[in-house]
Amino acid sequence: MRFDEAYSGNVFIGATPNLEESDTVIYGMPMDWTASFRPGSRFGPKRIRESSLVLEEYSPSLDRDLSELKYYDAGDIPLPFGNPEKSIAQIGGFVAEVLKQKKMPVGLGGEHLVTWPAVREVHRVYPELAVIQLDAHADLRTDYEGEILSHATPLRKIVQLLGAEHVFQFGIRSGTREEFQYAEKEKIPFYPFEVLRPLKEVLPRLRGRPVYVTVDIDVLDPAFAPGTGTPEPGGITTVELLKSIEAIARSGAEIVGADLVEVAPGSDPTEQTPVVGAKVLREMLLGFSR
Question: How far is Cα 234 from Cα 35, in angstroms, rounded to an integer?
Answer without folding.
Answer: 21
